[in-house]
Amino acid sequence: MDSRERVTRTVNFRTPDRIPYEWYKHGISVADRERSDILWTHYKPLIPHEVEVKGDEVWETDEWGCTWVSYKSIPTMGQPLVHPLQDWDNYADFKFPEIDLEKRFAGVDEEVQEFRDLGKYIIGALDFGVWERLHFMRGLTKTVMDLHSHSERVHALLEIITEFKLELIKGYSELGVDCVGFTDDWGDQARLMIRPKQWEEVFKPYYARIFGAARKAGMHTFLHSCGNINSIIGHLIDTGLDIIQIDAPHQNDVELLSERYRGKICFDCCIDIQKVLVTEDERLIEEEAKLLTSQLGLKEGGFIARQYPQLVHIGVKPEVNEMAYNAFRKYETYE
């Protein structure tokens, strides 16, 4: 059974030979091709990012006009601090990114074929999700205020962002990738950033359009979301989400995840990066691997073991990463 079949069977609950892996090389967000069953491919931006270095600060502006600030001395992705539509008066003249699938996917077909020749399961990246791109453009405070007092602004931007995703899905569909995915961090440590009812009323329809288009094209759907998102996982399943990727599963209560959603969605999880992996305790890491595989997966499928790609950001040493991999290997098959 090659990687593509293994992951497909896992997501579809059709009894793979073992759990699949989404694994990376230590210290850099590059896939470990020997260990990982899953490889990601990415479309290309049409406008190169503008980068300006100011001492220790790195200011980088993406093609949506959002400027990110990171630091050479701190190895993280940084955060968007300049929001091009923070002043709504800019909206009328703002130039949104063009689609132009031919240019965006130039050469991507060669990478997809390379991955296919390796027998891998391929996910096409859709970049940041509708929520993240929305508040990157507008600013988080203004976005939350808009949800209460200017919903027409929210929907105007969500429509543009969603249509952009739908066009990318067409491009990936033509390449024959297995899945499309994006990131949308919805939770803080304890709860959703907005009221769950508000999420259901405003955002659920856009998710349904995106996931529905992907599924209609024969692809699985993937979402990474940090924080406590228990209140919307059921809605995400309703919209057609196949794989939910969670880096700190204990934020959501593993027992509760198991009770509510096991067998209904495929979980893609790390050894919990907040509570367990950072302890560097081999016994705890092994216990965590057993807990996650047994509580979130079934012998028919439903669980993918993941390595957190930015281990250096949380101070995890290479040997701890090996502990995690070996722990998952110990429980990768179901008796």
Descriptive report:
- Helix 10 links the parallel strand 11 and strand 12.
- The protein has helices spanning 3-12, 101-104, 108-117, 130-138, 140-149, 151-175, 196-216, 230-239, 254-261, 282-296, 318-330, and strands at 21-22, 38-42, 50-54, 57-61, 67-71, 74-82, 121-128, 179-183, 220-224, 243-246, 266-269, 303-306.
- It is 40% helix and 18% strand.
- The strands form two sheets. An eight-stranded parallel sheet has the order 1-12-11-10-9-8-7-2. It has a four-stranded antiparallel sheet with strand order 3-4-5-6, with no helix packed on it.
Low-confidence sequence ranges: none
Instruction: Spell out the helices and strands N to C.
Output: HEEEEEEHHEHHHEHEHEHEHEH
- Percent of residues in helices comes to 40-55%
Give me the number of helical elements: 11
> Globular, elongated, flat, extended or rod-shaped: what is the shape?
globular
Number of strands: 12
| N→C terminal distance | 18 Å
Give a quick summary of the entry:
This protein is an alpha/beta fold and 335 residues long. The protein is built from 11 helices and 12 strands.
Q: How is this fold's topology laid out?
A:
Layout: H1 3-12, E1 21-22, E2 38-42, E3 50-54, E4 57-61, E5 67-71, E6 74-82, H2 101-104, H3 108-117, E7 121-128, H4 130-138, H5 140-149, H6 151-175, E8 179-183, H7 196-216, E9 220-224, H8 230-239, E10 243-246, H9 254-261, E11 266-269, H10 282-296, E12 303-306, H11 318-330
Parallel strand pairs: 1-12, 2-7, 7-8, 8-9, 9-10, 10-11, 11-12
Antiparallel strand pairs: 3-4, 4-5, 5-6
Helix pairs in contact: 4-5, 4-6, 5-6, 6-7, 7-8, 9-10, 10-11
